[in-house]
């Protein structure tokens, strides 16, 4: 159970780090000329961050989180919200 919690926390941290950095890349990208070499570089960086880090971190975050809640019966939904 502790390994599951650790994996969940690590995947959430990676996902949140991407969520914090992606808008910063958008701001930098908005400051360069359209079609320039820097624009292409920022597009590549944004795509790699989103598809290479954020999505692969989001999926285990959800899986481990739902496994944590439903797999161990930690929450009794009959009593209302968490």
Q: Which geometry do the CA atoms define?
A: elongated
Residue runs with pLDDT of under 50 for 5 or more positions? none
Helix content: over 70%
Q: What does the radius of gyration come to? A: 18 Å
SSE sequence, one letter per element: HH
The largest β sheet comes out as: none
Write down the overall mean pLDDT. Answer: 91
How many distinct beta strands?
A: 0
Structural class: mainly alpha
Number of domains: 1
Distance between the termini: 19 Å
Give the count of helical stretches: 2
> Strand-residue fraction?
under 5%
Describe this protein's structure.
This protein is mainly α and 82 residues long. The longest helix has 35 residues, at 37-71. The protein has one domain. It has two helices and no strands. It is elongated. It has helices spanning 2-30, 37-71.
SSE blueprint and pairings:
Elements: H1 2-30, H2 37-71
Helix pairs in contact: 1-2
Descriptive keywords:
single chain; 82 residues
Brief characterization of the structure:
The protein is mainly alpha-helical and about 80 residues long.
